[in-house]
């Protein structure tokens, strides 16, 4: 399995941090460097139809083992970029055999103490950068699995592979053509603890509420001024006080005030709305509209206005139609010696977007932890098991019929 680690170390050495608002896809040059690297490695392994799209997506295929041509086509997906919450430049990855207590990360003053991984081998940084296990652990695992399949070590149907840019800035699937990809079903390898299987995420919307005040010199304001900022505060106070991220967990949704600005004449509040239930999200949107309309009744038409747009949807509705995807992922996890655990995604994933584009796509754990920060680390044994889990998935896909039983 040293090839898995060798790959992982090679991929994290490329800085692929994505950048917002560049107007380009991929948004950073490093992602193309890694994309080209993967392209040539896939070719060298013997993958077919290896190509990179104009938007930097790497696609490749592994032809089916003889006799497995009619099996449903399995897609495996990971993302090239790393989060812009911490630097991804000059990543100094290092192996540590963890015997307990704290592990100092270089001279950075940062440390980790992951007691649940005593006896395991960790990959850590020097504490000045993120590691990039999100999602290069996923890429290394898919590449190592692809290698095993191409060597004929596992009987499998046709496999399609994709590595996508700019997932972390929410643009991972903007240019992803599911028809061009060619899979019937797929998994993203982009989760945390190996063995976790995720297919339930938020339904999401964003709202901008604008308030129109009446501005006038404060000295002559008596009975005339209407401060738009006071209207905004009154609006916010009408929302349920503890229906916010810091008071919500599990399947609970929330209203999250993400921005506010204003002066006497105008004010604006920005929210994100999240709810696992589609009806729940509709109720949240309706509540915002109701408060706006009540304010307009009280203060006159045009005082407040709501602009609400949907962002992404819970993939659970799609995955419920193909429960075998979860069933065989659980079986593959067990076979790889992992404890399968269904977890909720209190956010969205590329897989959620792809599921609603017609490619059902749950998410799998890769063995990485503490994503988006300098204390990020990966557990080598978990990465190895996650990789075997992908091989077992490929094997059991080969035994499925084209229209698998529900
Ligand atoms: Zn990720």
Concise account of the structure shown:
With 406 residues, the protein is of the alpha+beta class. The protein contains ten helices and 18 strands.
Which features characterize this protein?
406 residues, alpha+beta, Aminopeptidase, Alpha-Beta Plaits, 2 domains, eight-stranded mixed beta sheet, four-stranded antiparallel beta sheet, binds zinc ion
Description:
This protein has 406 residues and is of the alpha+beta class. The protein has helices spanning 2-12, 29-45, 133-150, 178-181, 228-238, 278-299, 316-319, 324-335, 350-356, 380-398; strands at residues 48-52, 58-62, 74-79, 94-97, 103-105, 110-112, 121-124, 159-164, 185-191, 196-201, 203-212, 254-262, 266-275, 304-312, 341-345, 363-365, 368-369, 377-379. Helix content is 31%, strand content 25%. The strands form 4 sheets. It has an 8-stranded mixed β-sheet with strand order 1-2-8-3-9-16-10-15, with helices on both faces. Strands 4-7-18-17 form a 4-stranded antiparallel β-sheet. Strands 12-13-11-14 form a 4-stranded antiparallel β-sheet, covered by helices on one side. It folds into 2 domains: 2-201 and 314-398, Zn peptidases (Aminopeptidase), CATH 3.40.630; 203-312, Alpha-Beta Plaits (2-Layer Sandwich), CATH 3.30.70. The protein is globular and about 85 Å long. β12 and β13 (266-275) form a beta hairpin. α1 (2-12) packs across α3 (133-150), α3 (133-150) packs across α10 and α8 packs across α10 (380-398). The chain has 10 helices and 18 strands. The protein binds zinc ion. Zinc ion is lined by residues 79, 134-135, 167, 190.
């Amino acid at each position: 399995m040293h090839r898995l680690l060798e790959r992982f170390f090679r991929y994290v050495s490329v800085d692929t941090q994505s950048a917002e608002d560049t107007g380009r896809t991929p948004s950073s040059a490093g992602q193309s460097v890694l994309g080209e690297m993967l392209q040539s490695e896939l070719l060298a392994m013997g993958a077919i139809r290896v190509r990179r799209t104009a938007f930097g997506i790497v696609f490749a295929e592994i032809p089916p083992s003889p006799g497995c041509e009619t099996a449903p086509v399995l897609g495996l997906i990971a993302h090239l970029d790393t989060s812009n919450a911490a630097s991804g430049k000059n990543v100094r990855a290092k192996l540590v055999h963890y015997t307990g207590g704290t592990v100092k990360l270089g001279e950075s003053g940062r440390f980790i103490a992951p007691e649940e991984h005593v006896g395991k081998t960790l990959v850590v940084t020097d504490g000045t950068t993120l590691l990039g296990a999100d999602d290069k652990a996923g890429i290394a695992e898919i590449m190592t699995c692809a290698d095993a399949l191409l060597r004929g070590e596992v009987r499998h149907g046709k496999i399609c592979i994709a590595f996508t840019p700019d997932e972390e800035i929410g643009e991972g699937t903007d240019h992803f053509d599911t028809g061009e990809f060619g899979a019937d079903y797929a998994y993203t390898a982009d989760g945390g603890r190996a063995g976790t299987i995720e297919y339930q995420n938020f339904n999401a919307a964003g709202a901008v509420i604008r308030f129109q005040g009446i501005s006038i010199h404060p000295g002559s304001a008596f009975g005339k001024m209407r401060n738009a900022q006071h209207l905004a505060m009154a609006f916010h106070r009408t929302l349920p006080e503890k229906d916010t991220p810091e008071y919500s967990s599990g399947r609970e949704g929330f209203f999250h005030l993400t921005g506010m600005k204003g002066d006497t004449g105008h004010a604006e509040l920005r929210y994100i709305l999240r709810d696992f239930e589609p009806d729940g999200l509709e109720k949240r949107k309706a509540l915002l509209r109701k408060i706006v309309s009540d304010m307009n009744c009280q203060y006159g038409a045009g005082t407040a206005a709501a602009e609400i747009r949907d962002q992404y949807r819970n993939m659970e509705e799609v995955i419920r139609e193909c429960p075998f995807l979860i069933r065989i992922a659980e079986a593959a996890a067990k076979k790889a010696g992992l404890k399968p655990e269904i977890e909720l995604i209190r956010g969205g994933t590329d897989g959620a977007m792809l599921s609603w584009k017609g490619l059902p796509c749950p998410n799998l754990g890769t063995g990485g932890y503490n994503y988006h920060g300098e204390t990020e680390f990966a557990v080598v044994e978990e990465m190895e098991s996650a990789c075997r889990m992908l091989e077992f998935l490929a094997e059991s896909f080969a035994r499925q019929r084209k229209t698998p039983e529900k």
